[in-house]
Amino acid sequence: MVTLDVRPQLLDTLSALRDRVAAARFPLPLAGAPRARANRDELLAQLDDYLVPRLREPDAPLLAVVGGSTGAGKSTLVNSLVGRRVSEAGVLRPTTRTPVLVCHPEDHHWFSGMRVLPALTRVWVPQQEPGDGLLPPGDDPARVLRIETAESVPPGLALLDAPDIDSLVAENRILAAELLCAADIWIMVTTAARYADAVPWHLLRTAKEYDATLVTVLDRVPHQVVSEVSRQYGALLTKAGLGAVPRFTVPELPESAWGGGLLPATAVAPLRTWLVHQVQEPGARQQVMARTAYGVLDSLKSRMPELAGAAAAQYAAALRLTSAVDGAYDSEHARVKARLNGGAVLAGDALKRWRAFPLDCTAGELLDALAGSLAALLLCAVTAADERIDQAWRREPAAGAPELAERDPSLKSAEHRIGLAVRRWRRELEEFADDEVRQLDRNVAPDPEIVAALVATVLLGGRRARSAGEGLAERLGAHGALRLRDRAGRLLGEYLDKVMHTERERRLAPLDALDVQPEPQAELIAALSVLQKER
Amino acid sequence: MTAVADQDHTEHVDRTGFVASRKGGASADEQENGHVTERGSGVTGAEEGTSGKPVKGLPGKGPAGDDDREGGHTRVTGEQEPQARTEDHVRVRAGREQRTDVTGATDVQAPAEHDAPRPPASDDPYARVADEDAAADSGDPSEVWDDGLIARRVNEGDEAAQLAAVEMHRSAARSATTLAYDGPLRSRLDALRELVGLSRTRLDSRTLAEAGRVLDEAATRRKLSGQHTVVAIAGATGSGKSQLFNTLAGVAISETGVRRPTTSSPIACSWSDGAAPLIDRLGIPGRLRRRPLLSPEAEAQLSGLVLIDLPDHDSAAVAHREQVDRVLKLVDAVIWVVDPEKYADAVLHERYLRPLAGHAEVMFVILNQTDRLPGDSAHQVLDDLRRLLDEDGIALGEYGEPGATVLPLSALTGDGVPELREMLGQFVAERGAAARRVSADVDAAAAGLRPVYATGRRTGLSEEARDEFSARLADAVGATAAGEAAERAWLRNANRACGTPWLRLWRWYQDRRDTPSGRFPVRTQVDEEATARQRVEQAVRTVSDQASAGLPAPWAQAVREAAVRGSQGLSEALDELATQAALPSGRPPRPGWWPAAVLVQACMTLLQVVGGLWLVGQIVGVMAPNLGVPVLLMVAGIVGGPLVEWGCRMTARGPSRRYGLEAERRLREAAAGCGRARVLDPVAAELLRYREVREQYGQVVKVGVG
């Protein structure tokens, strides 16, 4: 198990899995979504920065990342290990804003390319020159990796000075986590004043979870209390199940200093020896590498299902939102149909016109009133549906997505669209009436507009408009009247369906644009199981 | 005195302990002994007092005991009128301490025992209390009125007053000893209380919880001593909180060490007496209450200070953080201790300093462990710390502006401690911390409530919106159509009435021919559901949307609900109203000139007939041939008839328009009235309620700014 050869099959499945992970998206603001997004990014970073390059090139130098809280003395430690000031140390926090990677000159080619940490821009600083002012202007300092070379670093080892894991600058924190995920060896630095802090312990637990090769350094321990603090810290580690982790203690020395001097070699000698041993002893090196790599592979077993679960939750939430829209529009559709059949359109204005027709009201006016009333009915149905959707969505946390929240001022445009549809319906109705009248071979043909008004009244008036049916039959004959009525009725049904459908689609459009699909869940799990088989 | 005397002892105990230790520098155990012996001698002293030489102004005091307080008080003030006011102060001060001690003490002594030793024992310490209070305040002449300067003078000069003070300590006036908020703050608190009360039905309790808590805490704090300032020392693990605490107290009270986290529960230390209720409030048990090492000048400087040493807030021990969070809500001021290693920790800034940015005035930020920094880097770190605090939004109290105080200090070497001591002394002497803290709390609560009270948009129902609503309702009942129909019907009737008889004849014939079909008799039956339901629904929805636009969500919801409630039954009511308000059905009224017109038309027809007959007569030869007159008559009739008809139609136009408009207006008004009563008024009431609350909220916020 402890061998690490290049295995193309495994790499293939791994990159397939990586693509799946990269494709997973969590746009709906559910309770677990930010966490899932962070997990996804972290996993992606770990795959890109560490696992894939490591499995592809097992011979690459080991990367030891020095991480810890602000002011723990990470930079001082790195400087002391190297024996030269490569990383700025100072009293102001946070000190290290740009991560610094130190390696042997021979190993430089491993890191100058984009093999590991492809997301970071490389800045190569020539030897013997302090690295100030060499950052490309305008570049985000957090997304830059400075590479230093030093002869004193053993070949096959690279040290990376990471920013603070609990920095006030959020990007620094994220970057620090990302860098740690890229490490073969995690060097966790803490101090006598800090060893009980909560944040580093989270990181230690993470390291344990990933089964990474971990070393802890207890820095800045005043001489008087070395033994006691060390004992305390050891007890805490044991309690956390990390008792077997190699532990190094660096005393607080005047040189260590907030001024950024170098610690004497003796202070860091044990750590250095340990690191050199890990690098130069082939067996130990294999074990270090394999342990971390397989730790990450193993961690996929729990992390992938978690992502898949989050994806499923997203889909479920999207489904709930969609069904709320569908339910609202369906019920409003049914309601508006029932009202149409009940003759609700022939009320108010239209009813008054109808009562006055034909003595005090022209057919055109009656048609106008009916069309207006129909448009009002449809608009009412649509707004009622929207209101129901709003109510239902208010209970859904997922509806808080900014894409869903910002709605076009739709009432006006909906009114416009419905008005347009109703006018078109009216025109078609008039054409039908025209056709029907022209087919009649009577000497006195009835006015097509009157026929249209009567048929509209029959369709929209329900029981109330029985006399309109009589008038129509009289003008067109029973047969013609029935035919016209059926055609117009079908037309009305079509237009009704069309209007409701358009409005529903309009309402669903932003949700569809988010593109929350059920597939990612299955794909993630599938990629994981393929990987498991491949191992 | 050795510091580790328990606060739970009464005043008397502490004082006697003090006396004892001043004599002997005794340890805690010895002090306990001293206390006992002192008490014993006190009893004998009391016996002496009652037996023969009572001090002037307290006759019968000793034996009378607790029940006699009020009596004793009035008697004394009566006797010593000129010094009444100053005595009052002295009495108040002494009495406060006594009262709070008695109530706060856990081991209350039996009344007799409690009272008996008082006169002789008090002679020394009580005078001293007043004296010290005065000394502490003497630096601030503006405080003279309220505090001990006068009292001190009196004390120095007038033994009688002093004795009165000694005697009066029992009759404590409750109100004066407790904390008093100034006017603006009080009105803001009242406004907040009112606000919470007004919005209870609209907002869920979770939203109001923070405001309620602030009110409760403000009320609780108000009942407690206003002469004390509770200051907590908070900070990360290992930053030296306990060290600083001990340095300030002058004795190792709190355990310090390298083991992290060191302090696991808060420890209180009170510089003067009477703070027990305050410490009770923090939930600190008696065994964790301490007294500082009292040197006279230290006590004078920090009198009224209650210092709390908190556990850390950033260690892996979650319970510590919970304790810190709990206590931080209750204290008057906080000293944040940071060290060069941890001053930029995200936990400190993001979890504590940023949310508490409004509390800058009751905040000290101490950069501890400066001894670990070489050279001038302490200044650099301090500047960086200031920058971070500034980024957190904390106002820094530089150049005399109100804000947080930032100080470098080394608790280990003592560098900077005197400065802190002085600042604390000044801070405590001002006695404003509690009120400022409450004020900042109110600010924070108000800011938290902002989304549910204010949106920054204009709210209310505009006149146009009301008119639009009425217009929509009128549409729903079909007012326009009804008016037009009425107008046309009137006009039609007028035409029919004033038309030429020939036209009438023709119409009648037409009617007869068409009667079976094609003729739509004007239906007079009442329709059910004559009102367009969809239009009513839409009108209500629109108006409620307009009314709730710009309102915070809960209030918008309330407005919407009010509108929906009002709209229930609105359609039915409109149906009914429409039938009532509609013009009486059947034939429209006939104006007076119609008969005249009919008469004229008849005359015209008559003329035609006469002319025709005449002509016929001539043709037949019955009459003398005279072509001119009959033709003239006929032409007059033939032309005159339509002319009259036309004239009538012109004349009828005006009245018919009026008639139609009247019909429309009646419907319109009825609909509008119904809508106003059922929907607009409830909505307006709801808006008014919101505006009231908004004003109340403005009151809470505004005064704070001013």
From TrEMBL, chain A:
Q: Which GO terms describe its cellular component?
A: cytosol
Q: Does the keyword Nucleotide-binding apply?
A: yes
Q: Which UniProt keywords apply?
A: ATP-binding, Nucleotide-binding
Care to name a GO molecular-function term for this sequence? ATP binding
Superkingdom: Bacteria
Q: Gene3D superfamilies recorded for this chain?
A: P-loop containing nucleotide triphosphate hydrolases
Q: Which GO terms describe its biological process?
A: ribosomal small subunit assembly
Q: One of this protein's Pfam families, by short name? A: Dynamin_N
Q: Dynamin N-terminal domain: from which residue to which, for each copy?
A: 65-194
PANTHER family per record = GTPASE ERA, GTPASE ERA, MITOCHONDRIAL
Query: Per its record, how is this protein called by name?
Result: ATP-binding protein
Query: Top-down, what is the taxonomic lineage of the species of origin?
Result: Bacteria, Bacillati, Actinomycetota, Actinomycetes, Kitasatosporales
Automatic annotation (TrEMBL), chain B:
One annotated GO molecular function: ribosomal small subunit binding
Q: Which GO terms describe its biological process?
A: ribosomal small subunit assembly
Using the record's annotation, list all stretches that form the G domain. Answer: 231-346
Q: Which CDD domains match?
A: YfjP
Q: Name one Pfam family in it.
A: MMR_HSR1
Glycoprotein among keywords: no
Q: Ranges of Basic and acidic residues compositional bias?
A: 1-15, 64-100
InterPro entries assigned: GTP-bd (IPR006073), GTPase_Era-like (IPR005662), P-loop_NTPase (IPR027417)
Keyword annotations: ATP-binding, Membrane, Nucleotide-binding, Transmembrane, Transmembrane helix
Query: Which residue stretches belong to region Disordered?
Result: 1-126
GO terms under cellular component: cytosol
Q: Does the keyword Membrane apply?
A: yes
Transmembrane stretches, start-end: 593-615, 627-648
Its recorded name reads ATP-binding protein
